[in-house]
Write the C-alpha cells for this entry.
Amino acid sequence: MKTLDVGELIEHIDEVLRMVEKEGETIEITNHGEVIAHLVPVRMPESTTESAKRDVWTDLDRLAAEIGDHWPADISAVDAVRDVRRDL
C-alpha cells in the first residue's frame, strides 16, 4: 500500500486515481503523518458478472428440466395455473 500526504495527492490526483483504477492500488492518505483516508478501487459485486448471470440461467434450465421430468403429460402449464387461480 502506498502512502501519500494530502499535498502529494492534490499535486498528482490524476496519476493517483489512475493507479487506483487501473492497477488496483490502495492508497493511504495522510495529513501531517496521520492517516485520514484510504483510496481503494471499486470492485463489481460477483453477482453482476457475466459468469454469475450464466450460472443463474443454467440453474433455471436445470430446474425447468427437473420439473418437466415429473410433470403429468395430460396437464398443460396453462391448465395448472387456471386450476390454482380458481382456488383463489
About this structure: Residues 2-39 form one domain. The CA atoms of residues 23 and 50 lie 22 Å apart. The first helix runs from residue 6 to 11. The chain has a mean pLDDT of 88.
